[in-house]
Design goal:
The complex is a heterodimer of chains A (483) and B (1056).
Chain A: H1 2-15, E1 30-32, H2 40-54, H3 63-71, E2 75-76, H4 85-89, H5 100-125, H6 133-154, H7 185-200, H8 214-227, H9 231-244, H10 252-258, E3 267-271, H11 285-289, E4 302-303, H12 305-311, E5 323-324, E6 333-334, E7 356-360, H13 361-374, H14 380-391, H15 407-418, H16 424-430, E8 435-436, E9 452-453, H17 466-471
Antiparallel strand pairs in A: 2-4, 3-7, 5-6, 8-9
Helix pairs in contact in A: 2-5, 5-6, 6-7, 7-8, 8-9, 8-13, 9-13, 13-14, 13-15
Chain B: H1 2-14, E1 25-32, E2 43-46, E3 52-54, E4 60-65, E5 70-74, E6 81-84, E7 90-94, E8 105-108, E9 111-114, E10 122-125, H2 127-130, E11 150-154, E12 163-167, E13 180-183, E14 186-188, H3 196-199, E15 216-222, H4 225-228, E16 239-244, E17 250-266, H5 276-292, H6 298-313, E18 318-322, E19 331-335, H7 350-354, E20 358-370, E21 374-386, E22 393-408, E23 411-425, H8 437-444, H9 471-474, E24 478-496, E25 501-520, E26 536-559, E27 562-585, E28 600-623, E29 627-638, E30 647-658, H10 663-666, E31 671-685, E32 696-699, E33 709-711, E34 722-735, E35 740-759, E36 768-791, E37 795-812, E38 819-822, E39 832-835, E40 845-852, E41 859-862, E42 871-873, E43 876-879, E44 887-889, E45 897-907, E46 910-920, E47 923-926, H11 929-932, H12 945-949, E48 980-982, E49 985-996, H13 999-1004, E50 1009-1023, E51 1037-1038, E52 1045-1055
Parallel strand pairs in B: 1-7, 13-16, 47-51
Antiparallel strand pairs in B: 1-4, 2-3, 2-5, 5-6, 8-9, 10-15, 11-12, 13-14, 15-16, 17-20, 17-52, 18-19, 20-21, 21-22, 22-23, 23-24, 24-25, 25-26, 26-27, 27-28, 28-29, 29-30, 30-31, 31-34, 32-33, 34-35, 35-36, 36-37, 37-45, 38-39, 40-41, 40-44, 41-43, 42-43, 45-46, 46-49, 47-48, 49-50, 50-52
Helix pairs in contact in B: 5-6
Classes of the chains: A mainly alpha (483), B mainly beta (1056).
Chain lengths: 483, 1056
């Protein structure tokens, strides 16, 4: 009897494990990447992931937003070593402070966009009856935007030398062994325009807060054309947005309060940050602009004297309402990304979870103004009118006229309006201006750049990160000059 | 007197009826051990004849012998004795235990083996005898320096920290280098468990500490393929087999042990800061230099620097002035009189406030015994370890029952059950928070900073205008705690189908529940979880469950001189981890640290795991205990690989030749043992990730409160097992009655198809993908030499030295391309390493420091870029700019040789032992000096005394470090050879002194055993690296982890 029962126990212990799929253990928090998109709901989920991706710390979440302001002369620092000051002092090489996050995050986001586009195209070729257009349109638009941002970071500006090296173009899902090389700036812009125009027809003309819609696509077109100095097309794109009237400018009384709200009337493309959903807390963009010591912030960046003089042309400028005193006792601490000078946030639990306003209608007016001014057969009346819609935010200043309007007025207005929103450097480079830095507060002498630079300075474009060159020898000979 | 009575009784009862040959006499005697206890079953033979007998259960024997005959007494575990009768009719024979007994029985893979018959390479530690007095919460640390070929490192001196064991070098880059741990025949999980390491990098929770070291009987480390390949796919890094105690026949025993260990000091200096005056001078110099280098005058620079000091430290009650305005003029420090406390001449000692005398306490109670049918060992223990850092505590309570019962003549049922709960709290070794005391006290908290406000006397709550916080306040505003509750139940059944055929099945259920708790109050400075979130609490529950079923059939038979032993088996294993997480912020009350009360809650839960199926077999043959041949084969299938590659075959062959049993040596008296052996075989290593072969998309990238997904890996579907091919050859010998014994072994292990994170173009979307490409070779020689130098009845002195020489080289990489990687310790990015073909596996990859220009104190760097640099220095291209210095391979942490020296003295009941561990060669990367011995980059931090003394000045032109600068010099913080030091050291790891009271005394007290002991740990250290503790982690880096202390332990052992 005993023996029998013993054998039964032994056999039972064997059979415990003898089910057929014992060696096929699936993860419970991930799926196989090849089956991510089957339904419209899936496409929405992956689009959300793509949005979170571009909201990352290296990209629109912080570093890319800071890049143009820190390098464009609108910002200064009161001390080195508080973080990201390398951007301001141009202390970067292929090995050190290379900001390779732009490169790696950018291409990772492109992979996510391409996954959406390719998966949808596959379903379409299989004859799906689901309408994936809005998702495909968004992915194509973002693919264009990412290429646009990368080519500006790593290549010369279009108007400088369109035949110089841009960045690798990615429109396919690549194998791990792929080693793509850089295309010319011109080719990259051709790809960007091709994606933008293909996407245009797929997107809705209504507001889709937090996502790309038709007008966001158009606004990116306006930016891209302006950068290419194709002013007619830039003006046309900007005018379509202005004339279709889905968005409207903030009044002077609304302006300061607009920072404490999500998705305002001007917001054409806004990336949402929620608590635990891209909120970077003490590493957030908002924190980098806080006054030193406020909520234990380090006080990384403050406005340069030049900027304060510019905005100080009118003490009554409504935009002063978002600035507070900095550690140097100037009104140089900008609180746009914490909602208000009281750090009220934009309506979420934490004041650091403030949406990133990527494109506002104000910018479109200023693009329209510049394009109207510079197009062949300039329309100075239109230029002045568009500019004045923004310029009236400084009530004490005289409005521009068709006679007085000029490029500097428009660029200065853009600096005042879009301070800390990631524009100044691109505008200065694009228009071949000299950038002068307010180094007097730094305390130490700087060795990585002169006080004034222009786009002939090699560090106005970033080095291809050493990690890329190591992994992709084909790109080695394509490193940017002097790095 | 008693003995005489017994002997006479014996003679009367046995001898009278014996037939006595002519010329022969009847000899009677008694065999006892050193303590006078009777020994049964001992063979007594007469030299030169086949006549022999054995002792009965009272140790008595009689034998007929020639009056001049010589008796030979042999017994396993005792030294052989020869006694010339010289006409005596009674003899008392006292056998001495042979501690170095060569033919001990070892526990090995799926069974036991006599050491002399073993063809593989294994080291056996009799833990319950040799290591029991060492105060450790987990056994690993007690083995330091004891086993050739085995390196044991603990990253931190924290109570409850995890150790790593490396057997014969490093065999993997991406998968595990951990050996497989097997407890009582069952593979178990090892290493760090729980989530604290992810939440507070640098903190670990060692699952091995759930095994009470007092329950361990022995530990065997399997080193070569012959020893370990029966464990196949997980055994490439060796196997550590732990065997717990079982009941011994005889009457029930009750053993009680208690000990108290005190750790009043560190074992070495740890970046001792300069004194207050020196630090003030250094601080002043930085700001003075900042001004003068910008062209300002001495007077302006002096004013700026003094103002800076007054504004920084004035709020703490100090004011500063200087004798002159020069850079090196003396600073005068005065206390202010406007507060409740005048701090004139008084400074706060943070080291004293944050560290205490550590206390290690352990109490063990064990009851054990055995009868013919039943064996049992049960224990209950309670251990507390209050670490040197005043918030760090570890406690463990646990019980064990090892039980076996014969159900039937041929059937035995056994069950090993272990239940343990441990609790570790107040730990943190990271560099970048306000709670690493070592870092705070020696780098961030000036002695000018007080925990109380000098004006109000109240607790200081603000930040000290630098990265430093008042830990005495903030420690009340946060908690961390990790609890592990582990139950292991392993029932087994052994059936003797035939005398030669045994079947055994074990089923093991191993369940660990780890609960981590992390809390930040609303007053805590944490920039996300503290004030901005109004307090946050996190609860993590991680359940590790391992189910294992192992069934073996063993056939063992001897035909004349031929013996065979064949084993076959089947094993299945299921590993599952269930993870749950909940957090809450916006806490309503500082008194309630629970998610339940939180205003905002967050949660996550999922599981992961892997399964394995195996069949295995082994065959051993020996001829006349002289020629041994052995082979094994195992086939494993694992869910960690795709369907096409998941099965792997692993095998070994080995042989040994016992020369002592050959005719030509058997008569050579001075040789007690001589054996040579060789083996070759393969093992595997599993991929580290459960799902590494799958290209995956993950979720949780939520956007606008909706789910979001993203592709997260680009995988190679055909990932396969890493494989190692090991060759081992060795000899074991003993001469002159064990006056000299030892072993020498050579091994070479090729680890192939290593999984590597191969760098790929970022344009693909990812920076790397996992592939089977690399090859590493480890080879080395292990020597162990020992001897009983003095062997007298009352006095014994033995000594033993072991040395291991190891070379670990990268042989092949993907397309020959270098791979750089960072030391993962503590998330600190301490130093970069590089894998390069032909280089050491652990190769530091840093800039090369050339020293200081004595004429002006400027730093000099070798450019190493193939050019002549800005100028030549020692004939090589050099520069004053650190940015021009290219990284080079600059040595390795791998020592040339390492090992231990152990010596023991025994006199009557007193025994005294010394254990040294040592390391020769290799480099330490001193990450700490990047903080405390740099040249002014960090303006407002504490410097160590040596940084201050070694900085360049006109009076000290031949200095170690450059001139202090206020212009953010990156020379001192750039990872370079400036931070590399010779890692050689020797340490008196343990001193043991114990006294066992004589039986005469204990028996009067009606005790079995009464013993007192003392242990001293880390008492002496001689080292080339002086600034901090030279005993570092496997990566050779020293940072801000809690150092080791000197521990003095006193204990008492009572046996009933």
């Amino acid at each position: 009897m005993k023996k029998k029962s013993i054998f039964i126990i032994a056999l039972a212990s064997l059979t415990l494990f003898s089910c057929k799929d014992f060696l096929d253990v699936q993860p419970t928090n991930s799926t196989e990447s090849s089956v991510t998109i089957q339904t419209l709901a899936d496409a929405k989920v992956m689009t959300n992931g793509l949005m979170r991706n571009i909201a990352g710390l290296s990209y629109y979440g912080r570093n890319f937003m800071l890049y143009a302001d820190a390098k464009g002369g609108d910002l200064t620092i009161a001390s080195q070593g508080r973080g990201l000051d390398a951007l301001y002092v141009f202390n970067h090489s292929a090995n050190n402070n290379s900001y390779s996050g732009f490169w790696s995050e950018g291409y990772n986001a492109l992979l996510q966009a391409n996954n959406l586009i390719k998966s949808i195209e596959k379903l379409e070729s299989e004859g799906t009856n689901l309408d994936f257009s809005p998702y495909k349109g968004q992915a194509l638009t973002l693919r264009a935007l990412i290429h646009f941002d990368l080519v500006r970071l790593y290549g010369k500006t279009y108007t400088d030398d369109p035949n110089s090296l841009g960045v690798p173009i990615v429109t396919e899902l690549l194998e791990p062994s792929a080693q793509p090389t850089r295309s010319s700036v011109k080719e990259v812009y051709e790809q960007i325009m091709s994606d933008l125009t293909q996407a245009e027809a797929l997107l809705a003309k209504e507001k889709t807060p937090g996502y790309i819609n038709y007008y966001a696509n158009k606004a990116i077109q306006a930016r891209v054309y302006l950068t290419m100095a194709d002013y007619n097309k830039a003006l046309a794109a900007a005018q379509e947005i202005i004339n279709d009237d889905l968005y409207s400018l903030y009044s002077n009384t609304e302006w300061v309060g607009s920072w404490a709200k999500e998705f305002g009337n001007e917001s054409i493309f806004e990336i949402a940050l929620n608590k635990d959903q891209g909120d970077l807390g003490a590493s957030s963009l908002g924190f980098y602009y806080l006054k030193s010591g406020d909520t234990k912030a380090l006080g990384n960046f403050i406005a340069s004297d030049y900027f304060l003089t510019r905005l100080g042309q009118d003490e009554k400028d409504v935009r002063w309402g978002i600035y507070t005193t900095d550690e140097l006792d100037r009104q140089g601490a900008c609180y746009k990304y914490v909602g208000s000078v009281d750090k009220s946030g934009d309506g979420k639990e934490t004041f650091t979870a403030v949406n990133i306003k990527v494109i506002r209608l104000s910018e479109i007016y200023l693009i329209a103004a510049e394009a109207a001014l510079k197009k062949s057969g300039p329309d100075k009346v239109a230029a002045s009118n568009y500019l004045n819609q923004i310029r009236k935010r400084s009530p004490s200043l005289a409005l521009s006229t068709a006679a007085s309007v000029n490029e500097n007025m428009i660029l200065d207005e853009k600096s005042k309006e879009l301070y800390a929103e990631g524009h100044r450097f691109w505008d200065m480079i694009r228009t071949n201006k000299t950038i002068t830095f307010n180094d007097e507060h730094v305390g130490v002498s700087l060795s990585n750049r002169e006080k004034s630079i222009d786009r002939t300075f090699y560090k106005t474009i970033l080095p291809i990160p050493i990690e890329e060159i190591n992994a992709n020898p084909a790109i080695k000979d394509q490193q940017n000059p002097s790095y | 007197m008693k003995k005489h009575v017994l002997t006479s009784l014996c003679i009367m009862s046995c001898a009278t009826f014996q037939l006595v040959h002519a010329q022969q006499i009847s000899v009677a005697g008694k065999v006892t051990d050193q303590n006078g206890e009777a020994l049964a079953g001992i063979t007594i033979a007469i030299k030169g004849t086949s006549n022999s007998t054995s002792s009965n259960e009272n140790g008595l024997f009689t034998i007929n012998a020639d009056p001049n005959a010589t008796l030979i007494i042999t017994a396993m575990g005792y030294q052989k004795q020869e006694i010339n009768l010289a006409g005596r009719k009674t003899v008392n024979i006292s056998l001495t235990v042979d501690n170095q007994s060569i033919d001990e029985v070892m526990v090995v893979a799926y069974g036991t083996v006599k050491k002399s018959a073993y063809t593989g390479s294994a080291a056996n530690i009799n833990y319950s005898e040799e290591e029991k007095d060492i105060p450790v919460t987990s056994f690993e640390q007690a083995l330091v320096g004891k086993i050739p070929g085995v390196q044991i490192n603990t990253t931190s001196g924290q109570a409850g920290a995890t150790s790593t064991i490396r057997v014969r070098g490093i065999g993997s880059m991406n998968a595990s280098n951990e050996p497989l741990y097997v407890v009582d025949g069952v593979p178990v999980i090892s290493g760090n468990v729980g989530q604290m390491n992810a939440q507070l990098a640098g903190t670990t929770n060692n699952i091995m500490s759930t095994i009470n070291p007092s329950d361990i009987e022995s530990i065997t480390v399997l080193k070569d393929a012959a020893a370990s390949s029966l464990y196949g796919s997980r055994a490439a890094n060796g196997v550590v087999i732990i065997t717990t105690k079982t009941g011994k026949s005889g009457k029930p025993k009750i053993d009680f042990r208690t000990s108290l260990g005190l750790t009043p000091t560190w074992a070495t200096d740890n970046y001792k800061p300069g004194n207050v005056q020196e630090q003030s001078q250094y601080y002043y110099q930085i700001f003075h230099d900042l001004q003068t280098s910008a062209g300002l005058s001495n007077a302006e620079a002096n004013k700026f620097a003094i103002d800076r000091m007054n504004s920084r430290f004035g709020m703490h009650g100090y004011e500063f002035s200087s004798d002159g305005t020069g850079r090196f003029d003396k600073i005068n420090i005065k206390g202010k009189t406007d507060g409740v406390e005048n701090r004139d001449g008084k400074y706060f000692d943070w080291n004293d406030a944050l560290f205490r005398t550590g206390q290690f306490q352990t109490n063990d109670l064990a009851v054990s015994g055995a009868t013919e049918a039943t064996k049992y060992y049960s224990s209950l223990s309670y251990t507390t370890d209050k670490g040197r850092a005043y918030t760090n505590e570890y406690s463990r309570i646990g019980g064990r029952l090892n039980f076996s019962q014969k159900l039937h003549e041929k059937v035995e049922f056994a069950a090993n059950i272990n239940i343990t709960h441990n609790d570790k709290q107040g730990f943190n070794d990271t560099r970048n928070t306000g709670t690493n005391y070592n870092y705070l006290a020696n780098n961030l908290l000036f002695p000018f900073y007080w925990p109380t406000d000098y004006k109000t006397g109240e607790e200081y709550t603000d930040r000290y205008n630098s990265l430093g916080y008042n830990p005495l306040y903030y420690d009340k505003q946060w908690e961390n705690d990790s609890k592990t509750f582990r139950v292991v139940a392993a029932p087994s059944l052994t059936v003797k189908f035939l005398p030669e055929l045994t079947g055994k099945t074990i089923f093991s259920f191993d369940n660990s529940e780890v609960k981590d708790h992390l809390y930040y109050s609303a007053l805590h400075y944490h920039t996300t979880y503290g004030e901005p979130a109004n307090g946050t609490v996190f609860e993590y529950a991680t359940n590790h469950r391992k189910l294992l079923s192992s069934t073996t059939l063993n056939y063992n038979k001897t035909f004349g001189d031929h013996s065979i032993d064949v084993l076959g088996g089947f094993e299945a294993e299921k590993n599952e981890t269930n993870y749950q997480y909940a957090s809450g912020s916006n806490l309503p009350s500082s008194a309630l640290h629970t998610v339940a009360t939180a205003g905002v809650k967050d949660a996550s839960a999922y599981m992961w795991g892997n399964n394995m199926l195996s069949v295995f077999s082994k065959a051993e043959y020996n001829y006349a205990n002289t020629y041994f041949l052995s082979g094994s084969f195992r086939r494993d299938g694992s869910s960690r690989f795709g369907p096409d590659t998941r099965w792997g075959n692993f095998w070994s062959i080995s042989g040994a030749w016992n020369l002592k049993n050959e005719d030509f040596l058997s008569q050579v008296d001075f040789v007690d043992q001589l054996k040579v052996k060789a083996s070759y075989g393969t093992n595997g290593t599993l991929a580290g990730a459960d799902y590494g072969w799958r290209s995956l998309a993950a979720y949780g990238y939520n956007y606008m409160d909706q789910p979001g997904g993203a592709i997260t890996t680009l995988a190679d579907k055909n990932l396969k097992w890493e494989r190692s091919y090991s060759f081992n050859v060795g000899t074991e010998f003993a001469f002159l009655q064990n006056r000299l014994y030892g072993s020498v072994e050579y091994f070479s292990r090729d680890s192939k198809d290593l999984l590597q994170d191969v760098n790929i173009s970022f344009v693909t979307g990812f920076s790397s993908t996992l592939k089977n490409v690399g090859l590493i070779n480890n080879k080395g020689i292990e020597i162990s030499l020992g001897g009983d130098i003095i062997k007298k009845e009352n006095f014994r002195w033995s000594a033993n030295v072991n040395t291991s020489f190891l070379k670990s080289k990268v042989v092949k990489l993907s397309e020959g391309k270098d791979i750089t990687w960072w030391d993962p310790t503590g998330g600190d990015s301490r130093v970069q390493f590089i894998y390069r073909e032909g280089a050491d596996v652990f190769s530091y990859y840093v800039a090369e420091w050339a020293g200081v220009d004595p004429s002006n104190g400027n730093p000099i760097w070798y450019t190493n870029d193939g050019t002549e640099g800005d100028f030549l220095h020692n004939g090589r291209g050099a520069s004053n700019s650190v940015a021009d210095a290219k990284q080079i391979i600059a040595g390795s942490p791998t020592p040339k040789a390492y090992g231990g020296i152990n010596t023991d003295f025994e006199y009557k009941g007193i025994s005294l032992g010394f254990n040294f561990n040592y390391k020769i060669g290799g480099k330490i990367f001193d990450h700490g000096s990047r903080d405390v011995a740099e040249d002014g980059y960090y303006w407002e931090r504490i410097r160590s005394y040596y940084a201050i003394q070694e900085s360049w000045s006109p009076d000290n032109p031949n200095s170690l470090y450059p001139r202090v600068s206020g212009n953010d010099p990156e020379d001192g913080i750039t990872r370079s050879t400036r931070h590399l030091y010779d890692a050689s050291f020797i340490r008196l790891k343990n001193v043991n002194l114990s006294y066992r009271l004589p039986d005469a005394v204990t028996s009067k007290l009606r005790l079995n055993n009464l013993r007192v002991f003392f242990n001293g740990t880390n008492l002496l250290t001689a080292s080339k690296f002086k600034w901090a503790d030279p005993e570092v982690n496997q990566y050779g880096t020293r940072g801000w982890e809690t150092p080791y202390g000197k521990t003095y332990t006193f204990g008492l052992e009572i046996g009933l």
